[in-house]
Amino acid sequence: MEDVVIIGGGIIGTATAYFLSLEGRKVKVIERDPTYKIASFPLSLGGFRRQFFQKENILLGKFAKEFILNLPKHLKTKKNPKPTASMVANGYLLMFGPDKAEEQYKALINHKECEAGTKNIKGSALTNIFPYVNNEGIETATYTDNETEGWIDPFLFHGALKSKAQELGANFVKGDVKSISEINAKTIVSAAGCWTKELLKDIPVVPQKHTVFRVKCPKYIKEMPLTGDLTTGVYWRPEGGEYLAGSPISTFDAKDLEPEWNHFEELVWPALAKRVPMFEELKLTGAWAGYYDCNKLDNNAVVGKHPKYENVYMASGFTGRGLMQAPGIGRALTELITTGKYQTIDISVFGIDRVLNSTARPEPYVL
Ligand SMILES: Cc1cc2nc3c(=O)[nH]c(=O)nc-3n(C[C@H](O)[C@H](O)[C@H](O)COP(=O)(O)OP(=O)(O)OC[C@H]3O[C@@H](n4cnc5c(N)ncnc54)[C@H](O)[C@@H]3O)c2cc1C
Question: Are 51 and 142 in contact (CB under 8 A)?
């Protein structure tokens, strides 16, 4: 019998393999496509933030930043003594209209209690700090300017975690697991991303196609934060002389990963040009789409031991934030598996009973 088998070698499976290997567990990771062509993590924007509503998500965002900042220390190997995830710590700026302001003021109480270090500003004062923004219709905004949020290269991050896990003894193999029952191990972890329902039919996590556009604008503001306009749901950030901008609409039951090109003219460009007038002049240079691992119940993670099995754990349903939550979730699952309870961040609220009982606990700040 194997010790631990993890199904899925994406960012969650690999982070969990790393933390379990650190604790001396003998880990095997089974991944059906080691090129990760349609896995979510390589197609992500790499953003990490602490600006959420729920405390657990804020704390996982803080954990991510500490882990990424200390990545060379945690993940150096004999082969790669100086690993990097190419962190860009430009911060996040989230803007809210009057309808969302009350909710955001409540979120700020949670930010404070979690010592998130976020700053709040009235919409009318926004241009004092972000002069290129049109503040029309913005009631309140929140941002960080102390290098605690930003983005990383998802592929480099995954590679560094995988190399370290392998150095610690984890074994990554190619294989397509058709059913949990074919695995013979003391502990089984499902880290199958948006394909979780194929293995665990009672978990409402499904693929949700999300399109990102690449645009060029005559003016490039390198230090722009990852900016989310919650009045339209459009978000953007600078990238290598251009900008990346996400569609406000994600779709279920997509037949392929062809970008939703029509979203650009109809939704994204008008929203960008309204909020940042210099974006009137932009030119579309490309696009891609990937799957969010969407928890249809409440857009929040589903993590823990599955109550219907003796030895099956899972982590999925991150709905646009699995990359940044991977270190915290890998750590948390490892604590649960090795000690029976969470030690660093108590994420029992993300437990599986909640989805089996349909008790929603929504995280409103999905980008
Ligand atoms: C366009 C886009 C932008 C995003 N931006 C961000 C962002 O800025 N910040 C952020 O934190 N998150 C972001 N995300 C979300 C993030 O990418 C996901 O939440 C995260 O990658 C989920 O990690 P995972 O390991 O669970 O899933 P994946 O990365 O999809 O990995 C799951 C792996 O499991 C394998 N697998 C599945 N079933 C089986 C099986 N039966 N047998 C063997 N192998 C199996 C798959 O092949 C896959 O490689 C974004 C996602 C998209 C699509």
Answer: yes
Does 233 share its domain with 170? no
Domain count, the chain: 2
Query: Are 137 and 37 found together in one domain?
Result: no
Task: Specify whether 272 is located in the same domain as 307.
Answer: no
**Pairwise CA distance, residues 91 & 47, whole Å:** 9
ipTM for the whole complex: 0.99
Nearest to 267 by CA among 275, 278, 256, 255: 275
Closest ligand 1 atom, residue 288 Cα: 1
241 and 189 inside one domain: no
* Atom from ligand 1 closest to the CA of residue 316: 26
In a domain, residue 21? The reply is: yes
Query: What is the structure's pLDDT at 124?
Result: 97
- Taking the centre of ligand 1 as the mean of its atom positions, its distance from the CA of residue 75, in whole angstroms, is 21
> 93-127, pLDDT tens digit by residue?
999 999 999 999 999 999 999 999 999 999 999 99
Q: How far is the CA of 138 from the centre of ligand 1 (A)?
A: 32
Cα 90 to middle of ligand 1, angstroms: 24
SS3 of 34, please? coil
* CA 310 to ligand 1 centroid distance, Å: 26
Domain with 311, as residue range(s), is 2-85+151-204+297-356
Residue with CA at minimum distance from ligand 1 atom 15: 320
Beta bridge partners of 312: 188
Residue 78 belongs to a domain? yes
267 and 314 Cβ atoms separated by less than 8 Å: no
Q: What's the gap in Å between 323 CA and the centre of ligand 1?
A: 8
Residues with CB under 6 A from ligand 1: 7-13, 30-33, 36, 39-41, 43-47, 176-177, 191-193, 195, 198-199, 210, 212, 290-293, 316, 318, 320-324
Burial tier of 7 (Cβ tally within 10 Å: 0-12, 13-18, 19+): buried
Specify whether 131 is located in the same domain as 230: yes
Per-residue pLDDT, 364: 87
Instruction: Examine the domain organization and report whether 198 and 335 are in the same domain.
Output: yes
Q: What is the mean pLDDT of residues 176-194?
A: 98
Each residue of 153-172: pLDDT tens digit? 999 999 999 999 999 999 99
Whether the per-residue pLDDT at 305 is higher than 90: the answer is yes
* 365 pLDDT higher than 90: no
Report the percentage of the chain scoring pLDDT > 70.
100
Q: Whose CA is nearest to atom 16 of ligand 1?
A: 322
What backbone torsions phi and psi does residue 120 show, to the nearest 5 degrees? -115, 145
Instruction: Answer yes or no: is 173 within a domain.
Output: yes
